[in-house]
Amino acid sequence: MEKRKSMEREQESLTSELTQGKELAEQLMSHLHHSSSEEKRDFLISKILFSYEKALSLLTGSGDGSDGESKHITARETMLESPTSFGNSSPLSEISDQDCKRKNVFKKTKTMPSWTEEVKVSSGTGLDGGLDDGYSWRKYGQKNILGANHPRGYYRCTHRGTQGCVATKQVQKSDTDPTTFVLTYRGVHTCNKASQLARVKEGLKGNQNTTLEVKKAKQFSPEMSFSFGRAGLRVKTEHLDAREKDIFSPFSFPSTPIESEKVGEHIFCSTMMENNLVDSYAPIFESPPAIFESDYLAVSPCHMSSFGLAHDVQTSESDLTEIISAPTSVTNSPIGDFDFSIDDFEFPPDCLV
DNA sequence: TAAATTTGACCCCA
DNA sequence: TGGGGTCAAATTTA
């Protein structure tokens, strides 16, 4: 009995890994067609390889095949995820559509990549909870969290219905610092806006006016099967004059004082290196956080290298923190090389904030 | 009037 | 069994 359960789990993990591999391959195909950055393609390839290696290890029994996530997936959930896997005769067919939906949601939530950011905003920005990061979010819930002084807001991508974008984020005001919001992102944007933002970010490459400083990576734990840890960035903004704010307006940049003493405070790059996870970290930037909210965004060198940014880098107080300059828009770009100017970019009407 | 937000209820899981 | 996350109806906003 116990053995059978174990086998079922392995089969589920296998299915999950193969499915993931397939999806990643499809993403890669899409990126090939859109001449995305080499880093991004490399990352997708490494993820695909990892998925298949893991699947193989499950088949051969050489690995434990279970990770923190997949071992929680039940047989029922797995079947529900693949509606075609059971026919009318299955007792599962009696499960309501809503039940199916819910179970899919819970499973997807658990298996989606997630990472955390701490974003400091100045009071009066009117961005509480919204914290515009360039994506369109729709609030779908709010909960009081045990032990937390402030409620947690739940947001999902506006394009979820139209484009099936599964990205979600949680926003909670920090208990210790009311000006700091803890943002937890889950899932990767698959909406058009994501690729458009990526293009905007890439457009930073040739632009040199606005200073970016990536401050720190606060947390990283290999929570997701292998590559998607939780990483944190503390993003500060300051010194935006009216003109610059206008420039940033499409992304609603707030302005807050920078805490220079915290620059380089957290060394996460080395942690990544030690864990051979540098490549794995790429996805964190590849997808959403897209914090457009600072004119002062610090980036550790490992980020820089994974971004393919080798130019216009100044050394900051920390060896692990460097400053980039960019003129019109800023972000901790998930996408590596910044290839074209933002001037080349046009927002389709449906994506303007 | 469509889109966004609020909020109580529901479900899953530790 | 309670906490966290999500759904969806009701309400608000643009």
TrEMBL record:
Provide the Gene Ontology terms for cellular component. Answer: nucleus
Q: Where is this region: Disordered?
A: 1-36, 79-98
**Which residues lie in Polar residues bias regions?**
81-95
Q: Note whether Transport occurs among the keywords.
A: no
Q: Where does this protein reside within or beyond the cell?
A: Nucleus
Tell me the domain of life: Eukaryota
Q: Which GO terms describe its molecular function?
A: DNA-binding transcription factor activity; transcription cis-regulatory region binding
Its taxonomic path starts at:
Eukaryota, Viridiplantae, Streptophyta, Embryophyta, Tracheophyta
Which terms does the UniProt entry file under GO BP? Answer: leaf senescence; response to hydrogen peroxide; response to ozone; response to salicylic acid
The entry's protein name is: WRKY domain-containing protein
Q: What Pfam family is a match for this entry?
A: WRKY
**Protein keywords:** DNA-binding, Nucleus, Transcription, Transcription regulation
The record's SUPFAM superfamilies line, in alphabetical order, gives: WRKY DNA-binding domain (SSF118290)
